[in-house]
Each structure stands twice: as C-alpha cells, then as structure tokens.
Amino acid sequence: MAIERTLSIVKPDGVKAGLTGEILKRFESAGLVIAALRMTRLTMQEAQAFYDVHQERPFFESLTKFMCSGPIVVSVLEGGDAIRRNRELMGATDPAQADSGTIRREYASNIEHNIVHGSDAPETASREIGFFFTESDLVRGVRR
Ligand code: CDP
Ligand code: MG
What CATH code is assigned to 3-132? Predict the structure, then answer.
C-alpha cells in the first residue's frame, strides 16, 4: 500500500468545542501518524485562497467567513492510503449523510460547520500541505 500524506484541519467549530484532542486521537488510533502540526487563524484572504476551487459555489462567502472565525488546528497525517482513510474517519460532508461513528456524524452541526477538513486526492493533498507547511516542517521517522 502506498504511503501517503494528507492535510487535515480541525475547523473553528471543532477547536471551539474543545474537540482537537479527541479528533487527533481518532487519527492516531486508526494508525495515521502526525507528521506536522500547528495551530493558526486564517485571514479572509488565506481562507479564500485555500478554498479557491469553491469560489463559484453559493456557499463560498459563508464558508470562508466561518473558516476565519477562530483558530484552526492543521496537521499532516501520514500512512498507507492516508487520504482515503482520513476521509473515512471524517465521514460525508453533510453530517446527516455521514456513517455512524464518523467524526462528522458524531460532532458536526450541519453541512457547513462540519468540524474537519481532509484533502481529497494526492494532488490536492500536496497543494494543501504546501499551503501550511514547508518540507522542513515535516518530521521524518515518526512512522511506527
Ligand atoms: O470538506 P469536503 O471535501 O467533504 O467537502 P467539499 O465539497 O470540498 O466542500 C468544502 C466545504 O465547504 C465543506 O467541508 C463544508 O464546510 C462547505 N460546504 C458547504 O458549506 N455547503 C455545501 N453545500 C458543501 C460544502
Ligand atoms: Mg473537499
């Protein structure tokens, strides 16, 4: 299985609810390794740049406002099939559609305030990791 890296974000609603530790614990318990980690708060410009693929969507303005409404916790998760496995742990975008036991099903309020972000493909993972981290931020040798 290919070792992948993916970008994860605990969104402002997750941080405000005190769920950062719980969410990171779920990733680690599932065997994903944290290869980089930081807390930050996005400016509106940064939120718009991060979500630029969605700029034509009706929810873009509201989503970008939400994403800079408070601190976020950003991590790089590493492991076999990490991109798909992270999204599996997150659950569907709309918590009402998410499988039981997933992060979004258990904690998210609605389709916008859905607690976590995770990259959706190798190309987006690489772009999104580069948005927050430089190569020297990525710790090596943490894999079990
Ligand atoms: O985050 P995910 O990849 O599951 O979903 P997306 O389709 O890439 O959308 C990015 C984010 O936009 C979602 O996580 C939601 O926070 C938000 N969104 C929304 O507010 N309303 C929608 N109808 C779809 C997405
Ligand atoms: Mg997405």
Answer: 3.30.70.141
